[in-house]
Design brief:
Blueprint lengths: L6 H19 L5 H20 L18
Helix pairs in contact: 1-2
Amino acid sequence: MKKNMGSADRVIRLLIAAVIGVLYYTGTVSGTLGIVLLILAGVFILTSFISFCPLYAPFGLSTCNMRE
């Protein structure tokens, strides 16, 4: 897997995952929506740690800095 996520993209995904986690554990979101958002947060955390987004690959997108 070639990295296709830059550091800004990774930080934003981690912040979104943290907000979703806080909203779920404070009871603001619950039920089916809460579970779906927790799964999404898990995907955001996983993709942030491996610096690869599978949805970027088919479209040829990359937010990481190109080094020459």
